[in-house]
Amino acid sequence: MAAADGLAFHEFEEATNLLAETPDAATTSKSDQLTPQGHVVVAVGSGGSYGVEEEVEEEGDKTALLQEEKPQPGFWTFSYYQSFFDVDTSQVLDRIKGSLLPRPGYNFVRHHLRNRPDLYGPFWICATLAFVLAVTGNLTLVLAQRRDPSVHYSPQFHKVTVAGITIYCYAWLVPLALWGFLRWRKGVRERMGPYTFLETVCIYGYSLFIFIPTVVLWLIPVPWLQWLFGALALALSAAGLVFTLWPVVREDTRLVAAVLLSAVVVLHALLAMGCKLYFFQPLPPEHVVPPSKATALPPNILLTPTMSRSMATS
Amino acid sequence: AGLSDISISQDIPIEGEITIPVRSRIRESDSSTLNESVRNTIMRDLKAVGKKFMHVLYPRKSNTLLRDWDLWGPLILCVTLALMLQRGSVDGEKDGGPQFAEVFVIVWFGAVTITLNSKLLGGNISFFQSLCVLGYCILPLTVAMLVCRLVLLAEPGPVNFMVRLFVVIVMFVWSIVASTAFLADSQPPNRKALAVYPVFLFYFVISWMILTFTPQ
């Protein structure tokens, strides 16, 4: 019966359909009972949508922001980009938790993103990771110097630039390539369409979150513990990626699926290992000379990376 | 005849002059500030900057930073900080402290990014107001830099480091408290943490640069 349906929880789009139907019902049968229920339907529907939209609507935006019927604002308007930052604190925290604990049945995109990807998470997780890498790399050097006073300490600010460029390129170019590849193979799949570009960026961005505490834990100067933490973080992160990509890739040929998933995992492993080796390599002791003797050493000894292996194991 | 007898017809033209009282002397038309002496002009701006410094040092709920924003203060602070943080040009090695340009870029692009983030999340603060607040709240960290520079003139050692660490931490917390006092109200309540976290990251990076500064 339309009245019983009207009291159930509906998504916003269905509520407007019911609202279109109830005026007809109101005129034919007990109108006094039905019109208040018709209002209740609307109230439940509007209460059920995210309260966030109402707050964003209060901004002086150029285009209408009713969720179910707005035309997509053009990419030159500010409100277009505002739609990518339409998240609350609790939603961001929930997505981070979802990326930390991947489970085989739960698809990150469907379960946590709920088809509303955001750009806040990927952008600030990448920024945090880049700065944390540079800072802890620097701290490792300080701690190495405290133990072994012959190591020369310097702030090494260029590592911030390197970290930033690496992380941002990885987190934005690799999803671009993946998205392009999945769209190219779209014809082979029937059931599930490819993820949008933003969803792919979200998957990668949130999967990098686990590396932030791992990088901080890499301060502990025990090598096997560092490799253990690294392997753990890589396993969790890559598992999240694989579980999310599996439903999309499952319908493709086995060869393509295997190659794609292994490429994703290998790239992720390369990133983790590259960060570990580049940022956490204390400088060799030959790097240090008291300033009076600086002219005695030829300059290219200062720059050889092979000497660093001897320091890495100590 | 009382007032009730008066009837106003439609075609009586109304003439007159309306004078709007000028609210603050700063908003006068250009012709009256063009003739003043240079000293007056500079002192006026310096006093405005100084007043905002006081508001940052003793953060209260006031609108001065937001209402009369200016970017002179942030520029002075950023240039001072970058000049003090840059490494000397004598050593051309790759590893060392930041260059002047790197500090400058981090401060200004960091502030612009945080402002854009705050606006995209739905805050109702204007672009330049937010830049102004973020720039002025670097003042405690600039003071920390000066103190660290003085402390580094003494002999190096763990006590030296502890003193610097303590000063930098105190000033870092002061910066964050000052900036959130001004910025937090402009965000919807369920997104405050999302808007404040980048500010935390920004001042953390600047504090890190100050703490790891070693004179060459």
Average the pLDDT over all residues of chain A and give the rounded result: 72
Label the structural class of chain A: mainly alpha
Total number of helical segments of chain A? 14
Rg over C-alpha atoms of chain B, rounded to the nearest angstrom? 24 Å
Largest sheet of chain A: none
Shape of chain B: elongated
State which percent range the strand residues of chain A make up.
under 5%
Helix content of chain A: 55-70%
Number of contiguous helices of chain B: 9
Give a structural overview.
The complex is a heterodimer of chains A (about 325) and B (about 220). Chain A is an all-alpha fold and about 325 residues long. In chain A, about 65% of the residues lie in helices and about 0% in strands. Chain A contains 14 helices and no strands. Chain A has helices at about 1-5, 10-30, 30-50, 50-55, 80, 90-100, 110-115, 120-145, 160-185, 195-205, 210-215, 225-250, 255-280, 310-314. Chain A is globular. Chain B has helices at about 30-35, 40-55, 65, 70-85, 100-120, 125-135, 140-150, 160-185, 190-210. In chain B, helix 5 packs antiparallel against helix 9. Chain B is elongated, with a radius of gyration of 24 Å. Chain B has about 220 residues and is mostly helical. The model of chain B has no long low-confidence stretch (mean pLDDT about 85). In chain B, about 60% of the residues lie in helices and about 0% in strands. In chain B, about 30% of the residues are buried. Chain B starts with about 30 loop residues before the first helix and ends in a 5-residue tail after the last helix. At the A-B interface, helix 4, helix 5, helix 6, helix 8 and helix 9 of A face helix 5 and helix 9 of B.
